[in-house]
Every structure is written in structure tokens, then in C-alpha cells.
Batch of 3 targets.
Target 1
Amino acid sequence: MLANLWSLGGVALIVVATLGIGLWGSRSARTTDFSAARKPVREERNAAAISGEYLSAASFLGVAGLIVKDGVDALWYPIGFAAGYLALMLFVVAPMRRSGAYTMPDFVEARLNSLNLRSLSTVVVVVIGWLYLVPQLQAAGMTLAAVIGFRYEAGILVVALIVHISVVSGALRAVTLVQAFQYWVKLFAITLPAFALLVVFLVSGQRQALDEPTTPFFQQDTAVRVETDVTLRVSEPVWLTSSEEAGQEGAVYLQPGEYPVRAGNELRFPAGAAVPVVTGSVPDNASWLRPEQEGLPGVLETYSVLIATFLGTMGLPHVLARFYANPSGSGARRTALYVLGMLGAFYLFPTIFGLLSRLYVPQLLVTGRTDAAVLLLPNAMLGTWVGGVLAAITAAGAFAAFLSTSSGLVMSLAGVLSSRDVLWGRSMRFRAAAVLSCAVPVVLALAVHDDDIAHSVGLAFAMAASTFCPVLILGIWWRGLTAAGAACGMLTGGSLVLVAALASRFVGPHGVWGELLGQPALITVPLAFAVTYLVSVATRSRVPGGVSRLMLRLHAPDRLGFVDSRPVAEQTPRQGRHER
């Protein structure tokens, strides 16, 4: 109970601090600051703000959870999350900033002179934003359930309400200040506990090594309550006490094999018992430390994850807009370099949590809820008030992770939905748009609560990589792109990702097709590029006029003065921009 109070205090503190800093900073902010910085922002501060908004629940909780379950294969996720900014720095941010476009719809209209394509890209922005919000709400429900005892559904609704209040109250007008603050909160909340717990591990004389060819074992008598139906894979014989096992209660002896366990069942394991794991997890520690144990399906999944994360970052709706705060293309590129360093520093520490959690919270392998590893590890290693304080710090960091990302996304989506690009010339009130921005992801999060957070985020990255990445890369570096090619490419890539997501609900996660349906970027991204290119070649007569002048503006050095430095609010829309 005391540990829960510490964690509740940490969560409450981060919420109050975020709203307080936002309201204090908004005293000098204008209404237009919802969309763009009022004046250019220093590169270091802008990089901290971008990192704060980008480091979502998948980074703070999901990476460690995947490492606990999948081992070293999961390290490709943080590599891809960080490397996405390398692709941004090399190919996109400087030309995008020189174009004067603030959002992806702005860019496609300026580059291809098509209002219909602008509307289509706006719809895709909304879809990507909703897909990216779902894992944030999943993390919120799981966090409040783990540290406070809320029901998963109640946690989602509480956080959705907090996010909605932070958006409509005006606390995010000073968005750069708020997001930069939350980056440093998250970095502190992951580094201090990681260092402290690593020291405890080194001086504790832990009996079990992570490279032994045996399964993890329970270090003390442990009761595990299964919240959802699971199938356990038993590698070593184990005695346990079950509240209900195959219609019988009491002591049960399980031979190696697979056993279904229904939701609501409580399993009690004695100290020293081998840990059964949910199917899909790596059972023994030696295999857990070796990469690519699944053969061809594992290799395909790895490449698909890398393609989605490396190319999907540039298509996230809340990423590109932040670079408009830089005064020049070279400044935007330096900001991306700083972000790459900040993300690299952060991603060192979820790995430590994943390694230690394999030893100290092995019960998560039984339930499959490994995303809670970061939250539960401090109290598992240190049962004293010190563990409670560290747990409160990690809970505050987790809350900051999904609060910052969710608030930024809801604000971005509400701005899009309240424009005239989605509802065919009609506008929606900002507050009503904010409600819609939250409501749809809440429904989706309640429906898919069994998915891993990092895997859910991977779907949003796959959608972004399969829709906006081909348009950005070809639009910036190839004169021959046409509006028809861009539209066909976005529709092809986006439709295939959605079909794969739906099909994966009916096809198991095993085998080649199961892996590709769960993470389809390996197929959808090349197809989207191919369709975009081929349709553009077939419609080469419809290449917009003035493309050479625009390409010069995108690629000319900043010192020649072609960059458009006017704030978005001061740019004059072209005649007929919202006519249908």
C-alpha cells in the first residue's frame, strides 16, 4: 500500500508540474502558438522539445518489456526509433524547412499543387495520429493498474480526461517549454533508478546468471494472477498451486509442454520453481541472449521493424512540425543531430531495466504483461522506502511519456479536424475536435489491450512509412512526382497496412505470414514506393508547373536566401485553397 502511495504521488506531481509550467509559460504566448512557435527557438531547446514529445510510452515502457520477453532481438526497436532521426537529418528536415511548409498537407499542396491530395494527406494524418495514440492509452491503463490498482479501462479514461483538459485549457500554448521539461523528466526518471538498481544488482551476489541455459526461477514464493487468457509454455517440470487448472484446484505438477490458463486464475509458485512463459516468449536465458532464434520469420520481422521505424519517423504528424521553429534548413538539420544524441542517451537505460527484470520480476513472463517491468522492478529489488521512491520516479516518468506524446498528438489532431481539409470545406469547433481526437483512440485501446505497447507503436510507424515516406522522399529528391502518383502510393500503402492489421487479429503471430502481418512494412513500404513511382511515370504529363523553381528553393544553400522564414500565421493562402 505504501508503494502505491509513493507512485500515486509521483504521478500527481508530474501532472501538476506539467500543467503549472504550461500555464505559466502561456502567459506570454499567443493563440497561434498552438500551431507554431511565435519566434525561432534555439536548436538545443527545440531538440529537447522534439525528444520530449517523441519519447512515448513505447520508449519508456515498451522497450524494456520487449527485452524481458524477446531478449536481444528487441534491441532493434530502440535502434530504429533513434535511427529514424538520422533519415530525417539526411533527407528531409532541411529541404522541408526551406519549403516553408509547416505540416505534411502543407508540403503536398505546395509541391504538387493539388487540393484533393491535401485533403487525402490530412485524412492520413488523422489515421496515423489515432494509431499512435492507442499505445499511449494502453500504457496509461497499464501504468495506473500496476502502480495504483485502477482497472485498465478506468486508467485509460482518466488519462484521456487529463489529456483533454491539458489541451483545451491552453496549458500547451507554451508547448516548447512543456515538452523540453518533460524530456529532462523522462531522462532523469530512467537514469537515476537504472544506476541505483544496477549498483544493487552488482553488490547483491545474484545467484542466477543471464547466460545460463536454464529458465528463470522464482526467488521467493510468488502468487501470479492471470488477467487474460494465456497459453503457458513449460520447459522444466514445475509444481504450483492453482485456483483452477483443467477444472481442478490445488497442487498441480506440470510436465514440459503447453497449457492454457483462463483469465482470473491465480497461480502460486514456490521459491526456486522454474518460470513458465507465455507462448512467443524465449524460455531459457541462453537463447534469450542469442539473436535470431526464430529463423526466417524472425529475420523478416527484424527487417520489417527496421524499415518501419527508420522510415516512419518522418511521417509522424507531430514530428515534422517541430522543425518549423528553426530559422533555416541548416538549423533544422543541426536540431535533428541533437535529437539523435538525446535519444541515443535515453535508450541506453531501458535495456538495463529489461535485463534486471528478467531476474527479479519473472512473474511478468507468466502473465505476458512485461510492459510493466519498469514500474515493478524497483519495489521487487528494494522492498524498502527507497524502492518506493524509485518506483514513484519511474511512475512519474512513465506518466510524462504518454502525457507528453498524447497531448501533442491530440492538439495536432484537433487542429487538423477543426480545419476545412477533412470535412469537405466545413470546420469543427476546436473543443469538439479535441473530444473526437481522444474518443476514437480510447475505443481502440479498450479493444486491443492485449497487444505489446512497442508492437502497437510499430503499426503507426508502418503506416507512416507506407504513406508519407514515399511522398516526402520522392517529392524532395525527384522532379517527376505527380499528384496522382502520390495519391495512389498513399492509398496503396495505407490500405495494405490496415488490411494486415486486421488480418493479424485472426492469424497467429507465428510463421512467416504471422510475422509479416504483425509488422507489414517490409512489404508495404516497397510497394508504396513502386506504385508512387510507376503512376507518376505514367502521368508524367501532369507534373506541376514551376517544379524546377520549387526544387531550387528546397535544395539551395540557406545563405542564398531562398528559405521561407515567415511564420505560418502570416503566410497568405493561395486563392481557392479551401474551395471544393
Target 2
Amino acid sequence: MYSYTRAESRERRKLFFKGLRQSAADNVDPTIRHRIDRIDKAAAERGEQELNALYDTRGNDRQAVAQAKAAVRTASREEKAAARQALRDAEQQLKRSERAVNKAENF
């Protein structure tokens, strides 16, 4: 996964088109490729960190769902409604985090 900043996207796009024009003239400057590679490397590292953070969030949300299920099972009759609502909220948060991880992995 790559995570480019806006400045990196602009710089990469500018370098790409500069390299494209130079390749049409068969005179490609190797520093352009090196600069693009450096931008890609930084974006890949940032993307890896963001993906790991999403995995951690998903793991925490799974743990919250498990705890909420246990709370529903052990709740007294008066506390069951609140425990069920907490379970629904935890499941919705888990769905959001799983959706974010899937989107990041497939992007």
C-alpha cells in the first residue's frame, strides 16, 4: 500500500511527465527515476505504518466485540438491554474497521 502526501503526488506527477517527454526524445535523465523511486519508497513506508495501525484497530475492535458478548451473557435481566446495545455498537465499529482494512489492502 502506498500513501502519498499531496506534495509527493504533485512532485511524482511532475517528474513522471518530465520523464515521459524525455523518453520521447530518447534522452532520459536517470535522476528523475531515482527521485520517483525515493518518493515511492517513502510512500510505501508510510502506507505500511498506516496498514499496521488499521490491523491494530481491527484487533482491538474484535476484542471489544468479544467482551461485549461476554457482558450480554453475564448481564442481569435489568442490564441486558444496555449490554445488547453495547454489543451492537461494538459490532458496527468492527464492521467499519474491517471495511477500512479491506479497502486499504485492495487499494
Target 3
Amino acid sequence: MGYTFDFGAVFDRAPELLWGSLGTMGLALAGMLLALLIGVLGVAARTSKIPLVRALVIGFVEVVRNTPFLVQIFFIYFALPLMGIRLNPTVTAIIALGINGGAYAIEIIRGGVESISKGQIEAGFALGLHKGDVFRLIVLKPALRAIYPSLTSQFVMLTLTTSVCTSIAAYELTSAAQRIESDTFRSFEVYFTVTAIYLVISTLMMGMFALISRHQFNYPTR
């Protein structure tokens, strides 16, 4: 082929890749927390007795799930300033990730909530629990256990989606890789290494989620 592989140029820039990885994990964690908040609040609103509130949640979910993430982040970063709302790349990335992940989280959590029998909810009210306590203790926690695998898989996907945030100059792993590649012209070595790093990050996250599952949801259901 006439191409000589040289990973030395990549290893020399390892600190940049490390900082980029930390940036990726920071964006992912913040995006996950925001997505989970949107998901829980969205499910609560989805069960509202007010038709307009339910319609707004359904519309939000449909719009976000049926448009590309790249378009969403461009809209927040480039279109909102025309309305006087200016956000820096990091904040924009977190909001876009949270909104995107939140739309999927609403549907995932809703599926878990609807799996809870009405008898359990009625028993909670019979015990004198407040509506908020019934939702938190009797509905939400068992529902989270039921949908935990799907929700965590979505969060891992959200972590990989952070790579798109390089399009607005948010600092994360892919943006660091692009700078290194433009300086060294070692495309194969750079992106091979970055692929391996993303694989490690995803594996560590799945291990972390499995550990949380064993500690938080390891209780009998009957």
C-alpha cells in the first residue's frame, strides 16, 4: 500500500485525547441527568388530566424523535441567537443531548409506568399516601427497575451521540481527534485510537450501570 503506520504521533498527543474523553463523559453525564429529569417530568405531564398538557408532551416527543440530532443542535446553536438567546457550545450540547435523550426517556419510562397495575396504585392511596409519594414509591421505582436495561442502553447511545457536538465546536473526544488529525495527517491512527477509546468508555458505562442495578434494584418483586 505504501503507507507506514505510525501511532507515535497519536501517543504524543495522548493528553489531548484524555481531556477530550473527559469532555465527552462530562457532556454525557450532564445530558443524561437532564434527559432523566425531562423523562420523569414528561411522564408525569403525560398522565395529566389536562388535554393541552398531554398534547404538548406528545408533540414534543414526536418532534424530537422524528428529527435528526444534528438539526436539533444546529437549531439551538444557530437559530436561537436570532431570538436573542445565545448559548456557548458546551451549554448548547448539554441542552441538545438532554432534550434528545429526554424525548426517548419519556416513552421508555411511560412504558414502565403503564406496566404497574392499578391495584398497587389504589393500595397506595388506601394507605394514605400523597399522590406524589404514590408516583415516586409505588409507580416510579418499580417502573425504573422494569425499564432500566432499555434506559441505560439509551444513555450509552447518548454518550456516543456526543461526537456530533463537535459540529458546534463543543470540546469532546471527536473534536480533539480532529485537531490531532489535522496537525499530523495520521487519519487511520487517530480514528482507530478514538474508536478504541469510545469502546472503552461504552464498556465502562455498561459496567457502571450493571453495578448500580445490582445495588439499587436487587430486591424481590413478590
